[in-house]
Design a protein that fits this description.
eleven-stranded mixed sheet, 40% helix, globular, 2 domains, three-stranded antiparallel sheet, alpha+beta, Transposase Inhibitor Protein From Tn5, Chain A, domain 1, 465 residues
């Protein structure tokens, strides 16, 4: 067989044979990354992220600067390349090299001849970045770039506060955890009885669509204990910028403990936290449950009755608190729910607290899905907990970039509320031919690209920011 036949792929389409091959030359499938680069120019997310690392490499021997390495890793995740192995081929993409900040997008001036044509770092270099430790990076032979976790945590909150032109009157901090199943012997893996498998338990804090915290907890961690120092740090940083802002803490029953509630009360935070039902609570709403059941039998539709009660546990709570109860009856039977809250007065109507305040925390589930399904935050196969935490940071920063595109570029468009996966499919995964000349990089996208007008509009929106 000729070389042409060996490398080509044959398909049948009607009367003609279709012959395909990977011989197009300087082509890219990620032209939409140019929009992400514009987001970075206006927000400085990656620039701030890079300042959270300490680079102990010899400056005279550095071929891939730290900001370029981080941009390569983060942009790769945003574009759908979750594995480091992908970068052994992706490093040859000249458009990706331009987006990552390389001055030599075709890789013509590499130090070693064998690296010619590959502008960016390979999987081994990126792996060493993930495996570095702050306590040994200065003396290590290979792993000499270390992340400072506290600085990254502060950076994530800082990006949120900087995104507002003026201080908001009120913000809601959503707390939640999820499971991250593991299948090896990673540090921090434990069997979790609720989820029924070995896992990590990532802790997230969001404000609307803004990611403020992504903390990888061991599988046996108590989220109620782990959230307290994180919440204290986040609130302190927000109030340093916005001293008068009202902060409401919202979460499910996994965060309902006296320590969390007392912390909120001590620091002037309002809260609305789910509460597990028990026999004493159910007894307090028996009359409301009977009323809801009568309403269901009369109409055949789910009936709700809301009540506000004062409640204190027999041992664990230090004081009485307001609990909003939803007494509901539907076709499947009774469905009572409880929320403990600090909100009182005219705005504290029981139905409003439950339906308009507490239930809206469900949108955070979409944000967590974006983290795991679209930004691959569950790719935590490194041996150390610190290495997996860094991977979680990479996923979080990639999300922040795509959210920046949604917030700044997609305003007023049909994708203004789209999830990250949809944005990637329609705007970022765009085929292009790349031609590099002495003074310009020419990107030619398909004439038949169906979202060309949307692409132009997004670019215009970013220019106006």
């Amino acid at each position: 067989m000729t070389e042409c036949k060996q490398q080509s792929l044959s398909f049948q389409a009607g009367r003609r044979e279709v012959v395909a091959a990977f011989d197009g030359g300087s082509l890219s499938s990620d032209a939409g990354a140019l929009l992400l680069r514009e987001v970075e120019r206006r927000t400085g997310i990656l620039e701030r992220f890079a300042r959270c690392f300490r680079d102990h490499r010899d400056p005279d021997r550095i071929e891939h600067p730290l900001p370029q390495l981080l941009a390569q890793r983060v942009f790769g995740i945003a574009l759908g390349y979750e594995d480091l192995n992908d970068h052994d081929e992706l490093r040859k993409d000249p458009l990706f090299a331009v987006v990552a900040g390389s001055d030599d997008p075709e890789g013509r001036h590499r130090a070693r001849r064998r690296d010619g044509g590959s502008a960016l770092a390979g999987k081994s270099t990126l792996s060493r970045l993930e495996l570095s430790r702050p306590d040994s990076a200065s003396e290590s032979r290979y792993n000499r770039i270390a992340a400072e976790e506290l600085e990254i945590d502060s950076m994530m909150v800082g990006v949120f506060t900087n995104s507002h032109a003026e201080a908001p009157r009120e913000i809601v901090l959503d707390l939640d955890t999820t499971d991250d199943p593991v299948h090896g012997q990673q540090e921090g893996r434990f069997f979790h009885a609720y989820y029924g498998h070995y896992c990590f338990v990532p802790l997230y804090v969001f404000c609307g669509e803004h990611l403020l915290l992504s903390r990888l907890l061991p599988g046996n961690a108590d989220a109620r204990e782990a959230v307290l120092p994180e919440l204290a740090r986040i609130v302190r940083q927000i109030r340093w910028v916005w001293p008068e802002v009202r902060i409401i803490v919202r979460g499910d029953s996994g965060f309902c403990s006296d320590k969390v509630l007392s912390f909120c009360e001590l620091h002037g935070l309002d809260y609305a936290l789910g509460m597990a039902k028990n026999s004493r609570l159910l007894k307090k709403i028996e009359r409301a449950m009977r009323k809801a059941e009568r309403g269901f039998r009369r109409t055949g539709e789910a009936a709700r009755v809301f009540r506000s009660i004062s409640y204190r546990t027999r041992r664990s709570w230090s004081r009485s608190r307001r609990v909003v109860a939803k007494a509901e009856h539907m076709a499947l039977g009774s469905n009572p729910r409880f929320v403990v809250t600090s909100i009182q007065g005219a705005e504290g109507d029981a139905q409003w607290v439950y339906e308009e305040l507490y239930c809206k925390r469900g949108d955070m589930e979409n944000r967590i899905k974006e983290q795991q399904l679209d930004m691959f935050s569950d790719r935590t196969s490194a041996a150390s907990l610190m290495g997996n935490q860094l991977r979680l940071y990479f996923s979080g920063v990639a999300y922040m970039l795509v959210h920046g595109l949604r917030r700044l570029g997609l305003q007023g468009t049909e994708l203004a509320r789209a999830q990250c996966g949809t944005i990637r499919t329609k705007l970022l995964k765009v085929a292009a031919r790349v031609r590099v000349t002495a003074r310009k990089v020419w990107i030619s996208m398909p004439t038949a690209y169906p979202y060309a007008d949307l692409f132009r509009r997004v670019r215009l929106n970013l220019l106006r920011c």
